[in-house]
Amino acid sequence: MEKPIKVFKTFLDIVLPPVCYMCGKSCSSKYGLCDFCLEKIHPIPPPHCQKCGRRVTTSESLCAECIAKKSCVERGWSCCHYKDTIKECIHLFKYRGYVGLVDIFKDVMAGFIKKHRIHEEVNFIVPVPIYATKKRERTYNHAEVLARSLSKFFVIPMDTKNLKKIKWTQSQSELGKEKRLKNVKDTFLAVDRNVFSGKSILLVDDVYTTGATIDECAKILLLAGAGKVFSLVLARGA
Q1: How many domains does one find in the chain?
Q2: Per the confidence metrics, is the pTM higher than 0.85?
Q3: Coil, strand, or helix at residue 143?
Q4: Domain CATH code at residue 67
């Protein structure tokens, strides 16, 4: 059946040329984005803060925020600025079911991983979990989709069963910095601690704002015996 499906898709592309997810103009990119919109993806140039991935000056290893707080993450990376094309695509991906956008997200993140040789430092991938009710509403966990694509690309094992979010919380995007920290406290659980024992884990999520969620997950993984916890997000705020 695969060949007839491809032929049918080719026919549809001729009759109804594919259009850009963002601007609606015709495009031929495999991502469903035109060249103009692809150019509006903004990678974060080095040097990076070693905990959150924010751009810093050449004399700094940590940004001011990360100096002021204690983080459970060994090293954290952020691929892009959360604006323009990436911001709009993440919104389509999370809230409107455009799961096909994972192709461009995967290529952006995989390229970043290879450039910084992150895959050489980790042997286990774990997506940041969402509460079960929210997952049923969306039908998927966006972080899990991202993590799975990277797991397959780099052939690194992934676990989605043993780091769980056990409490419903208000959306972090609706809260200020201080409330975000309280909002995620004690909301995650390591079900089978042995799974994480001694592992160098890469936590994967879509957006970094204050880092409260990632840091709480990292704390639980370390308490479960993980050797080191790293983090990688697709995009981060200012």
Answers
A1: 2
A2: yes
A3: helix
A4: 3.40.50
